[in-house]
Amino acid sequence: MSSSPSPSSKLPPFDAGDPLGVDDLLSVEDLAVRDTVRAWAADRVLPYVAEWYEQGELPGIRELARELGGLGALGMSLDGYGCAGASAVQYGLACLELEAADSGIRSLVSVQGSLAMYAIHRFGSEEQKQTWLPRMASGEVIGCFGLTEPDHGSDPAGMRTYAKRDGGDWVLTGRKMWITNGSVAGVAVVWAQTDDGIRGFVVPTDRPGFSAPEIKHKWSLRASVTSELVLDEVRLPADAVLPEVTGLKGPLSCLSHARYGIVWGAMGAARASFEAAVEYAKTREQFGRPIGGFQLTQAKLADMAVELHKGILLAHHLGRRMDAGRLRPEQVSFGKLNNVREAIEICRTARTILGANGISLEYPVMRHATNLESVLTYEGTVEMHQLVLGKALTGLDAFR
């Protein structure tokens, strides 16, 4: 029978940055991954991201991609072909640190690794894997993922992009919308209707008929490249199709992998906003004392801390399940629904603590809040994840 610590045993000090002691659950390797990505983001993103956001651009994206490839952050949880083969938890920690800098940087990594590379790695031929994955893992080639269409977002089964056979070739025609990395990508994984059902295609972006005009005038994810994909009778060889999947199972499994990264990433945006609010509350004085000394402010900070660290614990739990091969899509929906929704509320509460300064780009809060409005919608809206859980809980399908 194990003995309990005596009352005189010395407890570790309370850590305001890790109030639940979650770091105790992380291995030395986990912490090394986290700290490496955090240091990179502090050096290469944080000093510049407010200006990028204000200008609505992500300059030097190809250089950033190569640096992220050098860190092993692209296709991080995939094995072989130059990929790092990291654990799901390590990939999640990287997403958290990247999104603590900016959601646009995490989106670059998620789309590259969890959507485009994951699709090729899981469903591609050996030739497709050898051709694309090593160069994508290094950041030499940027990828994008074409699923959403102008008239079909939450219902991808209704997509109109079509691939028809023409002799030994495929010919793709259609449009995709809100595609991260689109105009800088060297390869696009495009999903299209065929006579045999929905299929995925590996499309080099230099093919005649392919174009990717960048979408401007965004008020969210401004430090990110977002494009439309236009496919005007793009001719591809027979071996451009992903051979190992037919139907919606293909794109939906990719989305589940990307959503997992969002579960972690959203907590990074929340953490950055929370930390900004704590520091501001300790130094901003009103009525002759720091506002952090007032009960209403402390109540806000306490509630924010509870939701932030509950979300991190949830992400960690899902990561361990993924590493054990036991993570279900419904559980990913659980995490995405909760963590993004709570992250937005943390950012909004942080904004109230900063007052008018909360809308200034001198602080990260409003930038994170507006970015999360996009994160709330992409990879499945709140309503879609509610219905996924509703179906799982009741056994009744309410989608239609």
Automatic annotation (TrEMBL):
It holds the Pfam family Acyl-CoA_dh_M. Residues 144-234 form the Acyl-CoA oxidase/dehydrogenase middle domain. InterPro entries: Acyl-CoA_Oxase/DH_mid-dom, Acyl-CoA_Oxase/DH_mid-dom_sf, AcylCo_DH-like_C, AcylCo_DH/oxidase_C, AcylCoA_DH/ox_N, AcylCoA_DH/ox_N_sf, AcylCoA_DH/oxidase_NM_dom_sf, Glutaryl-CoA_DH_mitochondrial. Coiled coil: none annotated. SUPFAM superfamilies: Acyl-CoA dehydrogenase C-terminal domain-like, Acyl-CoA dehydrogenase NM domain-like. Keywords: FAD, Flavoprotein, Oxidoreductase, Transit peptide. Residues 29-140 form the Acyl-CoA dehydrogenase/oxidase N-terminal domain. Its cofactor is FAD. Residues 247-393 form the Acyl-CoA dehydrogenase/oxidase C-terminal domain. Belongs to the acyl-CoA dehydrogenase family. This is Acyl-CoA dehydrogenase family protein. It comes from Streptomyces tauricus.
